[in-house]
Amino acid sequence: MTDLNIKTLNSVTRTLIDSCQGYQTCADVSDDSYSLQAEFNRRQAERQQLVNEFQGQVRQLGGVPAEEGSMVGTVHRGFTRFSSMFRDDEAAAISALDDGEEFLAEKIEDKLEDGMFDSTTESLLRKAHQSAKSGERFADMLDG
Prior knowledge:
Layout: H1 2-29, H2 34-60, H3 71-84, H4 89-114, H5 119-143
């Protein structure tokens, strides 16, 4: 069971790191709106705190925590940079953020359905899921 907890936490950690980078990208391209930039930065810091909590739990379980994002996230960011050449940078970043938050929420839902986790791991997964759903609603509001 410990191995499943560590593997799952590290898998989600990689996606959380991708999400942090997504929020940073949004903050970087939203120069015109200080309040929007501040909200992206707040959400990025919140997501970074989740990364830290996940990494701490992996260490607590005797594992080595993930320190980098996923290959999928790297490809997604590359596509976002490419598509932003043809669209407004802010709109492209928000669209990518929405896609990323949806991906994160679905990934966590799948993990929760598939596994039996210790109470701390399950609690962290639920906390991250709630954060992703909140991010998805936020991105939908901006995109709408």
